[in-house]
Amino acid sequence: MTTNGTTRWPPYRHVFFDCDSTLTTVEGIDVLAEQAGRGEDVRRLTDAAMNGEMDLEDVYGERLAQIHPTRTQVQAIRQVYKDNVVSDAAMVIAVLQHLGHEVYIISGGLEEPVREFGLSLGVPADHIRAVGVEYDQLVGSWWSHHEGQEARYLDYSRGALAMSEGKEEIVRELLGGRPGASLLVGDGTSDLLAGEAVDLFVGFGGVAARPKVEAGAPVFIRSPGLAPVLPLAAGPSAMSRLDETSYRALFWEGVQRGQDATAFNDESLGAKFTAAVAGAGL
């Protein structure tokens, strides 16, 4: 990819993030399980699904059935997400949006907490997708003005995001033929599989480094933060557009940190990126 003799890295206009263990350091359903005293059992199922040892659809309902949470408990995950946000996640999203990228969150987590967490990071509501939950409105004080906050979990929406291979469908739906290249960042096997729907998949191991994802991702980041995503998504040359902004320092941090934390399983891709960094004078 050369233009006027200068090696360039293409910008990825559409940037998708997973939520749990990517934008936040926790797995929301595992948090519910700890509160219910079922932490070890549920965490084992979560890890098996995220590592590709079991299909997500085979464990999704089982995890929630073991926990049987109330609506209030599910909603409380919103604050847990915020309290455990990956340190630079909000700023990385802000930089991408400043540079003209569309940012999305696609998650196998529960819809209410994922949506509010995403909104707090500056992601538009119509760019956020997660798994809906139904509650038994006849359990708890259903007659009170609190409108069933004690209502307990009844079922979950058996849509694409509750299946290991379902994220690909949602990515394609959100893209909807829109122009521009696309990139997906995530930690789990479902994210790796969804890489078929985007131009570049970037595995993220800053919270949980999963061997199958690390081996299968064209690019893999082992940084505790998401800053190395910036030069990958926007292209190294984009830093020149941030010279008069407060965002430049984080972009530069992403370039520097990425030198040690970013691995390219695709050697030709790595060579192109290295050349683009050099071509941008970084």
Could you characterize the architecture of this molecule?
Helix content is 42%, strand content 16%. The protein is an alpha/beta fold. It has a single domain, classed as HAD superfamily/HAD-like (Rossmann fold, 3-Layer(aba) Sandwich), CATH 3.40.50.1000. The strands form three sheets. Strands 5-4-3-8-9-10-11 form a seven-stranded mixed beta sheet. The chain has a two-stranded antiparallel ribbon with strand order 1-2. Helix 1 packs antiparallel against helix 2 (39-50) and helix 4 runs parallel beside helix 6 (111-120). The model is unreliable at 1-6 (pLDDT under 50).
Share of helical residues = 40-55%
CATH architecture: 3-Layer(aba) Sandwich
- Strand order within the widest sheet? 5-4-3-8-9-10-11
Distance between the termini: 18 Å
Q: What is the number of independent domains?
A: 1
SSE inventory with pairings:
Layout: E1 2-3, E2 6-7, E3 14-17, H1 28-35, H2 39-50, H3 56-67, H4 71-83, H5 89-98, E4 102-110, H6 111-120, E5 128-131, E6 133-136, E7 152-156, H7 167-175, E8 182-186, H8 189-194, E9 200-204, H9 211-216, E10 219-221, H10 229-234, H11 248-261, E11 262-264, H12 267-279
Parallel strand pairs: 3-4, 3-8, 4-5, 8-9, 9-10
Antiparallel strand pairs: 1-2, 6-7, 10-11
Helix pairs in contact: 1-2, 2-3, 4-6
